[in-house]
Amino acid sequence: MSTPNTTLDLSAPMRERKIAARIWSQAFASVEFKIGMIVFIALLLLAIFYPWLSGIDPLKMDIRGKLAPPVFMGEGWNWANPLGTDQLGRDMLSRSLVGLRYSLLIGVSTTILMVSVGALIGLFAGYFGGKIDTVLMRLTDAQLSIPMIILAITILGVSRPTIPSIIIVLGLAGWPVYSRIMRSTVMSERKKEFVRGAQVLGATDWRIMFTLIVPLVLPPIAFVAVLDIARMMIFESVLGFLGLGVQPPTPTFGNIIADGRKYLINAWWIASMPGIFLVLTLTSINLMGASLERARNAIYGGA
Amino acid sequence: MFVVRFLVRRLFQGAIIVFLVSALIFTLLRVVPGDPVRLMAGGMAPEALIEKIALEMGLRDPIYQQFGRYIGGVVQGDLGQSFVRPASGAAVGGASFDDNTRAARAEVWDLIAQTAPMTLQLALLAMIFALIVAIPIGVAGGLRPGKWPDRVALYLSSIFISLPNFWLGIVLALLLSVKLNLLPAIGYDGFAYTILPALVLAVEIAPFIIRTLTVSVANVMGQSFIDIAAVRGLTRNQIIFHHALKNSAIPLLNLLGVQFSMLLGGVLVIEYIFDYPGLGRLTINAVMQRDFPLIQGIAIVTAAAFVLINIVVDLCATAIDPRLDY
Q1: Which of the four pLDDT bands, split at 50, 70 and 90, describes residue B132?
Q2: Would you call A251 helix, strand, or coil by DSSP?
Q3: Structural domain boundaries, residue A62
Q4: Cα dist. A91→A82, A202, A241, A254 in Å?
Q5: Which residues of B touch A272 (CB under 8 A)?
Q6: pLDDT category, A113, cuts 50, 70, 90?
Q7: Is the residue at A207 inside a domain?
Q8: Is residue A145 a part of any domain in this protein?
């Protein structure tokens, strides 16, 4: 799994490890981060191993065992389906956990795509300046002013939603924020002595950009990107809820909740249980992200 | 004079942005698969009729010609007519191909003008709720960085931001209107129907306000003029409410400008869940029905709103803090 620290390690070569490691250890020292990490790892292990170990197929229907409530809640519960079953007798726990897998997969890959596109565009705009900057930034402003969700549902609503298309659409809809941050930091770094020094030594623009500037400015951005994994997971579930996400029968949080909404009065658990899983996962990611962000702010200073 | 020059420059830039947005959305809608005429005429319509309607409407011309025609209308304030919605107000039209009500389709502008005030009402109420919740928590957190109010702010905002709006909407509707019968939830029949959607939206906005406030209040409180204010004999309340809060208001205003699109995204989903007759529900229906002119119109109007809100935000920021220069 690409947890935040691996994305970070990829982007940060040896020299930069120091600041990155300092942020990392400061964040790790906080209680919030530890709580978030324990909950997250527990959920991750559960999502990876439970559907596989229990051997319960999230798609297997059992009409006779349909609408069984979660344990200790209401009549007819059983230990085989700890969170109950849905309207077709499918096990809610394994459906939620498979949903969690898809949600994490899409959340993480979308964020990586988003950060890479945004950082590249911001890098070019900030480094070259002039006309390139104006064109790229006007484009960014234009994209920033179309609400991301309108763009996403427009594209996914008129074309077929598949996992890669969802990742691409969400990733391409979310980059402008990163290109703005990247541009402003690159612009300030670009004026510094070491860039001039490298130019005098005959380094090409590409070399300066990718070996000197990127390792310096990317880590602080990558830390904040952890928060966006959670945001993208919410987005993915919103799309699923609107019927524009990963299509049934594949269970995702969004389409389980959308289905469960029809049975809300008789079987509240169908819509609520996946939501509780989603909230737990998101809270754990957000706690980690928020403490990373705080550690970054404390070390870099400023907001 | 300064204000006039500022306005002219920003409005000009805004016009460029709106133009780019419309070009982007327009091209996108033409490029993706899915023929709107097929939906308009119905599944049973013969191929020849579909081609005839498409030709009549100019949908087979090159994209740049179609766009030129469209933008020519937009400049004159004409956003075109909806593909599928009849002017009579029914939600779905064009069910069969020999339906001859096609002449009386709704104007996009009217559709937007009818629904926008509803969305504005929802957004404003949500903003008020969010501020009521977030200001005490955020300010308390900012005044004691690292102490328990700060932690409370961190935990609360982490939890709030992790509540998916559609799920929270469903759960609150189940609890508050089905089980406890406190608030009406679905549809719209008076102001009371705005409260529950606004609450859900407020939960979505509040964490951003809390986070911005804690950071900016902590920043301002660390500056020397706050220390000096105490020496000047001002009470703690005076310092906090007159000096610290006023200075922390600017990041809050900027947040409003930046997060506008997020607010709109939230509105979209929440209106869909609660069946609230606003701009968000209109957008979702437009997308589901491949109603291209309506989607374009909504994109242009929201982009324009985004530009205007950002201009107003910057003007307010200079009014609060004259040192800022745009």
Answers
A1: very high
A2: coil
A3: 11-302
A4: 8, 64, 19, 16
A5: 167, 171
A6: very high
A7: yes
A8: yes
Q: Check CB contact of B161 with chain A, cutoff 8 Å.
A: yes
- Give the DSSP per-residue string, B252-273: HHHHHHHTHHHHHHHHHHHHHH
CB interface of A with B, residues 220-259, below 8 Å: 230, 234, 237-238, 241-242, 253-254, 257
pLDDT at A111 over 90: yes
The answer to whether the CB atoms of B17 and A145 lie below 8 A apart is: yes
Residue B209's closest CA among B256, B143, B148, B267?
B256
Q: Which two tokens stand for residue B35?
A: 């023929």
Within a domain: residue A4?
no
CATH number at residue A160: 1.10.3720.10
Interface test with A, best of B22, B35, B161, B296 (most A CBs within 10 A): B161
Residues 211-240 of B with CB under 8 A from A: 211, 215-216, 219
What three-state secondary structure class fits B185?
Answer: coil
Kindly report, residue by residue over B57-116, the tens digit of the pLDDT: 777 778 888 888 888 888 887 777 777 776 655 545 444 445 555 556 778 888 888 888
Question: What is the band of B20 on the pLDDT scale with cuts at 50, 70, 90?
Answer: confident
For residue A300, pLDDT beyond 80: no
Q: Do B287 and A290 touch (CB under 8 A)?
A: no
Q: Quick check: helix, strand or coil at residue B319?
A: helix
How many domains are contained in chain A? 1
Range with lowest mean pLDDT among A7-21, A66-80, A109-123: A7-21
| B16 to A138: CB separation less than 8 angstroms, yes or no | yes
Q: Is residue A224 a part of any domain in this protein?
A: yes
Contacts of A160 (CB under 8 A, 6+ apart): none
Q: Do B155 and A139 touch (CB under 8 A)?
A: no
- Backbone dihedral angles phi then psi of residue A195, each to the nearest 5 degrees: -70, -45
This model of the complex carries an ipTM of 0.77
Min Cα–Cα distance to chain A from B162, Å: 5
- What is d(CA A91, CA A98) in angstroms, rounded to the nearest whole number? 11
Q: Rounded to whole angstroms, what are the CA distances from B107 to B83, B96, B103?
A: 10, 21, 11
pTM score? 0.81
Q: Which residues pair with B105 in a beta bridge?
A: B86
Q: Which of B166, B174, B179, B220 to mutate to test the interface with A (most CBs of A within 10 A)?
A: B166
Q: What is the pLDDT of residues A71-110, one digit of tens each?
A: 666 666 676 677 777 777 777 888 888 888 889 999 999 9
pLDDT tens digits, one per residue of A249-261: 888 888 888 888 8
Number of C-beta neighbours around residue A77 at 10 A: 18
Q: Is the predicted pLDDT of residue A302 greater than 60, yes or no?
A: no
Mutation site, A158, A257, A265, A268, interface B, largest B CB count within 10 A: A158
